[in-house]
Write a structure and sequence with these properties.
Elements: E1 11-13, E2 26-31, E3 37-39, E4 50-53, E5 59-61, E6 64-66, E7 73-80, E8 83-90
Antiparallel strand pairs: 1-5, 2-4, 2-7, 3-6, 7-8
Length: 91
């Protein structure tokens, strides 16, 4: 539903050109206009964009994504090193 927090936290796995986990890489998560906000920690502010640093296993995970208040398609993008991945939801 519009304005709700999704039940699964968005995450990306960062790897090097050999497929090995890449720790310490900063990943920028940003919502499109009207697509809500994200949290880095459960008690943190809901905002966009945010930066998450990949852990030793290459994971960069948000605490949550709260959708925008208007129904329709919503999008979140994770970007690092010139590469991006998109998440989409329908409110």
């Amino acid at each position: 539903a519009a304005g709700s927090t999704l039940p699964v936290a968005p995450a990306v796995r960062i790897v090097d050109r050999f497929g090995n986990p890449a720790s310490g890489v900063q990943v920028t998560f940003a919502t499109d206009a009207g697509s809500g906000c994200v949290r880095v920690t459960a008690s943190g502010s809901c905002t966009s964009p945010v930066v998450v640093t990949a852990t030793a296993d290459g994971q960069a995970t948000l605490a949550s994504w709260t959708l925008g208040t208007t129904g329709g398609a919503q999008r979140l993008t994770a970007a690092a090193g010139g590469v991006a991945a998109s998440f989409s939801a329908l409110a």
